[in-house]
Each structure stands twice: as C-alpha cells, then as structure tokens.
Amino acid sequence: MHRRRFLELVGTAAATSACRPDATVAPHHVERAAVRSPFAHGIASGDPTQDGVVLWTRVEADGAEELDVDWVVSLRPDLSDPVARGRGVATIERDHTIKIDVRGLAPGRSYYYGFEAQGVGSPVGRTRTLPAGSPAQALLAVVSCANLPRGHFNAYGAIAARDDVELVVHLGDYLYEYANGRSGDGTAMGRVPDPADRECTTLDDYRRRHACYKRDAQLMAMHARHPMIAVWDDHEIVNNTWIGGAENHQPDEGAFAVRRQAAIQAWREWMPVRDVTGTAPIEIHRSFRFGDLLELFMLDTRIVGRDRQLPRDDWATLTSRGRSLLGPTQERWLLDGLRRSVDDGVAWRTLGQQVLMTQVRDADGLPRNTDMWDGYPAARDRILGFLQDLAIPDVVVLTGDIHSSWATVLHRDPFAAAPGPVLAVELTAPAVSSPPPAEPPDLAALHAAHPHIRWVDVRHRGYLTVRYDSREATATWHHTDDVARAHLELPARKAFRIPRGRPDLVEIDPPA
C-alpha cells in the first residue's frame, strides 16, 4: 500500500465505526476500486525471529466450514518476485482465522506480505525479521490498555504512521471484556463493542469481541505496518485475574476454568502469536534476541503463576516467601535466560510484563495496590536479588496496566536509609485509550516519599518508544489528551536516557 494512501486510511478512522461489518479494502494484486473483501479484520504479523515471522489473517467464509487461503512474502511492496509463498486452510474450528509460520527469511530485513481468498487479495502488510550479529540500534513501540468504547486508538494510528519503528510490544489489555456502558459507553463515538449487552464469558463472546476490535481502522493500520509481540493482561480474560479465579468472575458466570480456556483459545486464534501445543496454551513467556544488542523476555504476571490478590493490611501473608507471581517454572526460565544472555555477551536485557514492579506505599507504609508486584514482595525480591547477586547489568522493565506513564529506578529496598544500588529501570507505558486513574495520587507527596520514582504522568494517553544502541537506551513518551476524536497528533512529551553500564534515568529534551 502506498504511504500516502496508507496515511489517508489512518486519518479517516474517525468516520469508521469500529465494529461496522461493511469494511472494504483494495486488493493487492490489481489496481482497481475498493471491493467487498473477505479480509474485513485486516492482516497482521508477529513473533518475529531472525529467520521467520508469523503471518495472521481472518477470512469471511460466507457459511463455508473451511476456505483455502493463499499467502505470499516478498521484498517488494507489489509482492512481485516472492521469496516464500504457499496455501493454508482457514477452518471453522479456529473461527476462520489462519496463521502461517514463515521460515527461511533473512535476518534484519523488511518484507511485504499478503493473502488471497475467493479471488480477492488482502491489503499488503509490512513486517520485519529480528537482526543477527551486531545491529546498530533497535526501536520498540510499547503499548497497553486499549478500551474501545473509551476512545479512539490514536496511539496505534501514530505508530502505524512511523517508518522507524521495528516492532510493537503489546503489554496486555488488548481488549476489555465488559458490556458497553460498564467501562465506557461508546454509542456517541460509534465505538460500541460486540457483544454490547453483556460481558464476555463464552468462546463465542470472546471471538466476537476480538473481531470487533480488529475492525478498528487504526489498529488494522498498525498491524499492517509493524510486527507485534504481545502478552495478555487481565481484561483479555476478566478483570483482576489470578490462576484460580478473578475479582470480576461471579458464580453465576459458570466455572472460571471454562471461561479462562475460552478466552485463551480466542486470544490465540485472533492474535499474531506463534501456536503452541499440548498443555502449553496457558504459557506465553518467551524470549526474542536482537543479535547481541538486546534480549526481550516476555512474561505472564497474570495467570500461569499468580496467587490470589490479598488485602493491603494482610502484611504477614503478603510477605510470605511462598507467594508467587510468575510461578516456579516461569521464574526459573527467566533467571536462567538473564544469566545466559550475559554469558552470550548481549548488551541489554528487557522484561516485557504487565504490572508495576516499583514499590509504592501509602502514608501508613502499606502497599497502595496489591494487584501489582507490591502484592508479591518476596517474588519481586527474588528477581531483584538475582540481579544484584549475579551483577546482571543493563536491565529495563517495560510495564503497562495502570493507565499512566512512569519512569522509575528499582532498588531491593528503596525505603531503606541506604537503599543500595539501582538494579534496573522501569518504564511504564500509558494507556492507548483507557481512562486515567479515578483517584490520581498527590504527585508532590508521591515524589517526596518515593525518590526512586523520577517522573509520573497520570493524565495523558499515548505510547512509549525505547531505542537501544550499544551506548545507551532512550525512552520517550508520546502523549495526547484527546481520544474523543481520531487524530495522529501525539508529540513526544518526556524523554530519559539510560546509560549502559550505569542503570539510571537521565532526563533529556524529547525529540521534536
């Protein structure tokens, strides 16, 4: 797709109802007027490796149980001279979604791809493999918390319009399970989720909710422009999930395990993530290496190992050494991976995960929110203690979930008279459209009591970028205060650099 036409489509998102069923696209194999397309939910790519990438789409099958889908990958935007091609089958068992795990590609290259079904071509997408060797830099866009009825996905549109982004990291809450009106009423903006009259609890509900979100023009544009690496948070399933239940799951909504399985199945069908088999669908932790520059560890702090959230004043139980957030298998996998990355000479280690690791206490010394790592202090101390004891350098933690922007440094005990060394930095991405905290903290008091918190913004929506090179990492927050209309005006508002070899946050002027 030509860049001008691409930006025009992003810019007209305001006129498109997110769940309207009559989306049209221009087929990639001919130049002609837009036609009704079986690819109404767009195309996407994800989970890139140094020699491959997952391609995703969904076809409107018009009642057919299965449908042949051709795919092609090329170095050219017109898809001529393909480097890979083939045919897959979209089946009713997978809601007519299809994923192709393409291999044999070259590292660090941009590729173009497309699908064809029923004689009609999809839009052309662009993707990229991970680099090998010693890449000069890597630029990640980081997003979380996109609530359809709460506003337009302007952060997605702004990321889609950028040529320099190599990868989108989604930290969860890709969608919300609520009925329309429970957490935002999208009627006035034409952003009513489907199903509208009820919370998602069944496989059909979750499939329809994914399908609805995938019709958003700005989301479709971002997926078509950049590969994504994603993990879930709670709302892909149900609010405040833990391994055995959730705050927002009630007895009259059936067995929690059945609901969780339905949500996970729909997520795996509808997201551009690599398929797994056996008992592993509940496991999403995995790592991605960008040559010797960066290793990205994607974690699940929500389901696979999380013990139930506890009241803030149950200090004895909260601080129990046995409390788990990652679970023993994932925790050991992470620690082994961090050590291996150092042994292999990788410059940077980054954790992509859901909930705030930074310690935040109220005036009584109690954790403000036990759904975060503050509700699992022993689990956090095992991670930070490992970083300290083994001198694991240059660790960046990426976080979503809390609908605000934070830049913090991590100590084992930041409240001690001598808090010890900075072991990592934490960068929290703002929400794409979800609202700011209902009761924002007193920022002056927060900073006075928490010197490890260098900056907080609790008002704006947007996205975060992190650029890595061999000398430093640079974090930049891009903000808007307007999600009631669709636009691409998200200027850089705040920026910090993180020097390699000396974990710290040094404020710099944001790029123009």
Q: What strand order characterises the main sheet?
A: 13-12-11-23-24-25-26
Beta-strand residue percentage: 25-35%
Secondary-structure class: alpha+beta
Distance between the termini: 27 Å
Number of strands: 26
Label the overall shape. Answer: globular
Low-confidence stretches: 11-15, 21-34
What's the overall average pLDDT, rounded? Answer: 93
Radius of gyration: 22 Å
Number of helices: 9
Helical content band: 10-25%
The biggest sheet, with number of strands, parallel, antiparallel or mixed sense and barrel status, is: 7 strands, mixed
Account of the 3D structure:
This protein is of the alpha+beta class and 512 residues long. It is built from nine helices and 26 strands. The protein has helices at 3-11, 154-160, 203-214, 217-225, 256-270, 315-318, 328-343, 377-389, 443-449, and strands spanning 24-25, 35-36, 43-46, 53-58, 66-74, 82-91, 97-102, 110-117, 120-121, 125-128, 138-143, 167-170, 228-230, 241-242, 245-246, 286-290, 294-298, 348-352, 395-399, 405-410, 424-428, 453-457, 461-468, 472-480, 492-499, 506-508. A seven-stranded mixed β-sheet has the order 13-12-11-23-24-25-26. Strands 16-17-18-19-21-20-22 form a seven-stranded mixed β-sheet. A hairpin with a 6-residue loop joins strand 3 and strand 4 (53-58). Helix 2 (154-160) runs parallel beside helix 4 (217-225) and helix 3 (203-214) packs parallel to helix 5. The longest helix has 16 residues, at 328-343. The protein is globular and about 70 Å long. The two termini are 27 Å apart.
